Amino acid sequence: MNIPQPLWQEIEQIIVSYPQPQGAVLPALHKIQERMGYLAEEALAQIAGHLRIPQVDLFEIATFYTLLYTRPHGDNIILVCNNISCYILDSETILSTLEDELKIKAGNTTADNKFTLQAVSCLGACDGGPVMLINDQLYPHLTGDKIRRILKEY
């Protein structure tokens, strides 16, 4: 999936706003994902070539950050915290409940492309554990029943 010309123009505007073009990597990747849905290998190759950065370096960046995707994802992204604070509060059961309800394992997308489920190391809401984030909405103090009610909203 190649980067379309109008998106290239937006990326160029991002690049010229940085003293060093390599400083524009993350903003450019975010812009590509925002417009194209994910960071396709072809798009990473185009950006790498344009910025004169090895493609493997861009792939490492894209796979390091939780909210950057190198493959298509569901319409709704569910992130479940599994850091120590949430783990102590039984985040394993929360993740297991979501896997059972969605009929997928963490790291996968439902067959109808409605949900992608991921376990992440921290959502920065330790006081509300166990927590999950669906798109931009944080859900604290989770239980199995609460998860089932929340999923019905989507």
Name some characteristics of this structure.
154 residues; alpha+beta; Glutaredoxin; 2 domains; 4-stranded mixed sheet; 7 helices; 47% helix
Task: Please specify the SSE layout and strand pairing.
Elements lengths: L4 H12 L8 H12 L4 H11 L3 H10 L11 E6 L2 H5 L2 H12 L12 E6 L11 E3 L2 E3 L4 H10 L1
Parallel strand pairs: 1-2
Antiparallel strand pairs: 1-3, 3-4
Helix pairs in contact: 1-2, 2-3, 3-4
Word description of this protein:
With 154 residues, the chain is α+β, with helices and mostly antiparallel strands. The chain folds into two domains: 5-64; 76-153, Glutaredoxin, CATH 3.40.30.10. Helix content is 47%, strand content 12%. The chain is built from seven helices and four strands; from the N terminus they run ααααβααβββα. Strand 3 (132-134) and strand 4 (137-139) form a beta hairpin. The longest helix is centred in the N-terminal third of the chain and has 12 residues, at 5-16. The mean pLDDT is 93.
CATH class membership of the largest domain: Alpha Beta
Return the average pLDDT rounded to an integer: 93
C-alpha end-to-end distance:
29 Å
Largest sheet: 4 strands, mixed
Instruction: Give the quaternary arrangement of the chains.
Output: single chain
Based on CA atoms alone, the radius of gyration comes out at: 18 Å
In N-to-C order, the SSE pattern is HHHHEHHEEEH
Continuous helix count: 7
Helix content: 40-55%
Strand content: 5-15%
According to CATH, the fold-level topology of the largest domain is: Glutaredoxin
Structural class: alpha+beta
Give the overall form: elongated
Counting structural domains, the number is 2
> Would you identify the regions where 5 or more consecutive residues have pLDDT less than 50?
none
Q: How many β strands by DSSP?
A: 4
